[in-house]
Amino acid sequence: MEIISGVALSRNIKEEIKEEVSGFLDQGLRKPKLVAVLVGLDGPSQTYVNAKVKDCHQVGFESEAIRLDESTSEEELLSWVKKLNEDASVDGFIVQLPLPKKIDETKILLAIDPLKDVDGFHPVNIGNMALGLPGFVPATPAGVMQMLDRSGIETSGKHCVIVGRSKIVGMPLSILLARNSNPGNCTVTLTHSRTKNLEEICKEADILIAALGKPGFIKADMVKKGAVVIDVGISRVETDTNEKGYLIQGDVDFNSVSDKVSFISPVPGGVGPMTRTSLLTNTLRAYKRSFNLN
Asked: CA 77 to CA 50: how far, in whole Å?
């Protein structure tokens, strides 16, 4: 069994990005810039945004976190989006989800310029991905594809089962893994809460990807011996065993499943770092487009 370390892989990718950015700065160009907009005081979102800012500094990007009060209206947030769309110094930006319930997330995402949508959620980018056209791939699916590629995992002709059909992870991954590409060329089964005989389907998977947000859902008896398991899930589980009062757990029961598989990604330290690195990669692509460097 081999553990796929997202920490190690993302470190390598960030070194590659840093070297490329250094070359652009030597040419007298400005730094790439990524902006994150955060509304409210959601704890995990704040942690995530802080990590993104740190990542930017590590690779030589300029970064900015716009922190707005919980009382921010939909109109005010749309005004910020418009401002960032029009700011030529901003290569890409994200609006951190979830948003307060009074704000229509879809309306906000639709307002983002697809050319700056480095989260890859705009319908234009989703459509480009589905058609195999240039555009931004959602960060978490892009990170998973990089994990498979850089770990040397063969995907062509394999049966991939994805548990969870979210627009952010499951659905985009099903498209990417089925495409005629490398990695790709999988036969993909996309499962969800209404899927019958889920355990039996999971046991048929050469590559099993868990992305449903239920801690420890995938047990050893749901996994085929020698399978590749990618755990996208990340949940805070309350505990009294540490000062934080919670543990970070994935969708896979790691201790039991790891004995049966050929490759497995841990939580934390697996897909999470790769998601953040994909944001950097998308931002660099937007930057290069603006300077005709592609």
From this structure: 20
Distance between the two ends of the chain, CA-based, in angstroms? 38
- Active-site positions read 52, 96, 119
- At 40, list the tokens: 């409210």
pTM beyond cutoff 0.90:
yes
* Residue-wise pLDDT tens digits, 89-128: 999 999 999 999 999 999 999 999 999 999 999 999 999 9
Q: Cα separation of 285 and 292, whole Å?
A: 10
DSSP state of 221: G
Q: Are residues 143 and 259 in the same domain?
A: yes
For residue 224, what is the domain's CATH number? 3.40.50.720
The 10s digit of each residue's pLDDT in 189-225 is 999 989 999 999 999 999 999 999 999 999 999 999 9
pLDDT at 88: 96
Given 113, 129, 149, the domain boundary residue is: 113
Tell me, yes or no, whether 19 lies in a domain: no
Instruction: Give the residue ranges of DSSP H helices in the chain.
Output: 6-26, 43-59, 74-86, 105-111, 123-131, 139-150, 170-178, 198-202, 254-257, 271-290
Is there a domain that residue 124 lies in?
no
For residue 215, the 8-state DSSP code is T
